[in-house]
Write a structure and sequence with these properties.
2 domains; about 0% helix; 8-stranded antiparallel β-barrel; mainly beta; elongated; two-stranded parallel ribbon; about 240 residues
Length: about 240
């Protein structure tokens, strides 16, 4: 029987894109707007934490990534620029919480048993006493304390988002609001965010930000992104995450 779970995380991602037009020596075609028809750039993103939103929980996930971007202008006028966008992130690092549980029995005789560290969507360190009775003749009472220790596991991944769109507003100004969406996949060396969730996930990004043009063909963009991950039932445990 397939186990189904949902996990959602929201994280602020600061995406720094330095886009340099390949048509730097040519005059801009169409209306008088900033940016070339084809642009390439580099990007980096980072999140120090994640939080619970809807459809589940995967808390305290840290993420960092670096990659390259490509953008091609499709429609342009004096009010907005509509572009195709794609991103390739060859380096993605995700730090996932782990839990280690140790059972310390005080009766019927002293004994200690430790469960190896495992990935978890949330870890709370602490101790909990337990007790019970083992059926038998005669029944045997037992008691002890369960200790939980929290740690982290670093996972490596790469991602490709070839299906994307971006809208720049006020294209005749140096400072432009932007709206973007990107779809693709992320492939990790280990299952994320738990051991039964799988290493392959589909991704969906939605972002808003500001782009500042240092020159007509060179800019810096800062974005806030909501990233959605889902293995779409391709693994034993289905997880959907928002970061």
């Amino acid at each position: 029987m397939t186990r189904v779970s949902l996990c959602v995380v929201i994280v602020v991602l600061l995406v720094l894109g330095v886009a340099k037009g390949v048509e730097a020596q040519a005059k801009p075609d169409g209306p008088d707007v900033y940016g070339a028809k084809n642009t390439f750039g580099v990007m980096a993103e980072y999140s120090n934490d994640s939080s619970h939103i809807v459809l589940g929980a995967a808390e305290n996930v840290k993420l960092g990534a670096a990659g390259v971007i490509y953008q091609r202008r499709l429609v342009a006028n004096r009010h907005f620029v509509f572009s195709y966008a794609a991103e390739f992130r060859p380096v993605i690092l995700e730090s996932i919480p782990t839990a280690t549980i140790t059972y310390v029995y005080t009766s019927p005789y002293p004994e200690t048993y430790t469960v190896p560290p495992y990935l978890t969507t949330r870890c709370i360190a602490g101790s909990v006493p337990f007790s019970g009775t083992i059926n038998g003749t005669p029944p045997t009472p037992y008691a002890g304390t369960m200790y939980t220790r929290c740690g982290r596991q670093m996972n490596f991944a790469q991602g490709l988002s070839p299906f994307g769109l971006r809208v720049n507003l006020r294209p005749g100004h140096k400072l432009q609001p932007t709206i973007s969406t990107l779809e693709g996949y992320i492939l990790s060396t280990k299952p994320l965010p738990v051991s039964t969730a799988g290493s392959f996930n589909f991704t969906f990004d939605f972002g808003v930000g500001l782009e500042y043009h240092l020159q007509p063909r060179r800019s810096v963009r800062l974005e806030y992104r909501l990233q959605h991950y889902s293995n779409d039932y391709t693994a034993e445990t289905r997880f959907t995450s928002k970061i």
